[in-house]
Write a structure and sequence with these properties.
Blueprint (H helix, E strand, L loop, with lengths): L1 H23 L4 H22 L7 H25 L4 H23 L6 H17 L11 H24 L8 H20 L8 H27 L2 H8 L4 H10 L6 H19 L1
Helix pairs in contact: 1-8, 1-9, 1-10, 2-3, 2-7, 2-8, 3-4, 3-6, 3-7, 4-5, 4-6, 4-9, 4-10, 5-11, 8-9
C-alpha cells in the first residue's frame, strides 16, 4: 500500500507542477509560489482537523516546520525556473538531488535496508531522471535554459529537506506536521511576496488557480506522508520523486516540446524503476 500511495503522490505532484509551470508563464513566479502555499495551508488545516491526531508532539511539529521550509524554497526556485525554461528540463533536474540525498539519509542515518531489487530500482532512478531532463545543466550554458536548470538544482535541495523532514514525524501526530510545514512555507515566502507585491494585481481566476495548485501540492504531500509511514524512506521518496515523468510527457504532448532519444530512454528507465521498487 505504501508504494501505491507514493505513486499517487507522484501523479498528483506531476499534474500540479505541469499546471504550475503553465501558470508561471502568465503570472509572476512569486505570486504562484506564495498563493500556492496559502492554498496548501488551507487544505492542510482542513485535513488535519477532519482527521484528529492521537497526540501532537512538539518534535513532530518542528519536523513539519523544517519540511515546510524546504517546500517553500523548492517552490520559489522551481517556479522561477519554470518561468525561464522548458518544464521537461527544469522539473526532472529538481528531482535528481532530492532523490539522492533522501536515499543516502535513509540508508546512512535511519536504518533503511532496501532489497536487491529496490537497490536496482534506486540506481536506475537517478540516471533516468537525468536522462528525462535531457542531461540537465549543460556545460557552458549561460542562457535562460541554463539559469532555469540551475534553479531546478537549487530547488532539489529544498525537495530533499521537504521529504526527509516530513518522514520523521510520528503517525500519532496525524496531518499536523503537513499543516505546520505549509505555515512555515508561507512565512518563508513573505519577503519575496512583499518585494513583488504589485505583481499580485492579477485577475481573480488566475489567483484562484494558484491557490488550487498549492492545495494540490499539499494533498500530494499528505499522500507522501502516509506512504513514508508504511514504507522505507528510501523507497517512498524514490517512487514519489518520479513525478517529473508526468509533466515531461504532458510538455512533449501538449506543448510540443521536442523529445530526444535520451528523454525517451529516461522515461522507459523510470517505468522500469517503478516495477523494481514496487517489488522491493
Amino acid at each position: 500500500m505504501g508504494a501505491v500511495l507514493a505513486l499517487a503522490s507522484a501523479a498528483c505532484y506531476g499534474l500540479v507542477d505541469f499546471a504550475g509551470g503553465l501558470l508561471s508563464r502568465r503570472v509572476h513566479f512569486a505570486v504562484v509560489a506564495f498563493l500556492g502555499q496559502i492554498g496548501g495551508l488551507l487544505l492542510a488545516l482542513v485535513a488535519a482537523l477532519a482527521l484528529p491526531a492521537e497526540a501532537v508532539r512538539p518534535a513532530d511539529v518542528l519536523w513539519g516546520l523544517l519540511s515546510g521550509a524546504g517546500s517553500g524554497a523548492a517552490m520559489h526556485f522551481l517556479n522561477r525556473g519554470l518561468s525561464r525554461g522548458h518544464m521537461s528540463v527544469v522539473i526532472p533536474v529538481s528531482a535528481v538531488t532530492g532523490v539522492a540525498l533522501s536515499v543516502l539519509c535513509g540508508v546512512c542515518f535511519l536504518g533503511d535496508r532496501p532489497t536487491a531489487s529496490a537497490w536496482l530500482g534506486i540506481c536506475v532512478t537517478v540516471p533516468a531522471l537525468w536522462l528525462v531532463s535531457g542531461g540537465g545543466l549543460h556545460r557552458g550554458s549561460r542562457g535562460p535554459s541554463g539559469h532555469a536548470s540551475a534553479d531546478g538544482l537549487i530547488a532539489s535541495l529544498g525537495v530533499a529537506v521537504q521529504y526527509i523532514g516530513l518522514a520523521q514525524s510520528d503517525p500519532v501526530s496525524g496531518l499536523w506536521p503537513v499543516a505546520a510545514g505549509r505555515l512555515a512555507a508561507v512565512i518563508l515566502l513573505v519577503p519575496s511576496a512583499w518585494r513583488h507585491a504589485r505583481r499580485f494585481r492579477q485577475p481573480w481566476p488566475l489567483q484562484v488557480q494558484a491557490v488550487l495548485i498549492g492545495a494540490g501540492a499539499a494533498f500530494a504531500l499528505i499522500l507522501y506522508l502516509r506512504a513514508a509511514q508504511q514504507q522505507m524512506l528510501a523507497i517512498a521518496v524514490v517512487l514519489a520523486s518520479l513525478y517529473p515523468a508526468i509533466p515531461t510527457v504532458l510538455g512533449l504532448a501538449m506543448l510540443r516540446e521536442t523529445v530526444t532519444r535520451a528523454q525517451l530512454a529516461g522515461l522507459v528507465s523510470a517505468a522500469a524503476a517503478v516495477i523494481l521498487l514496487s517489488l522491493g
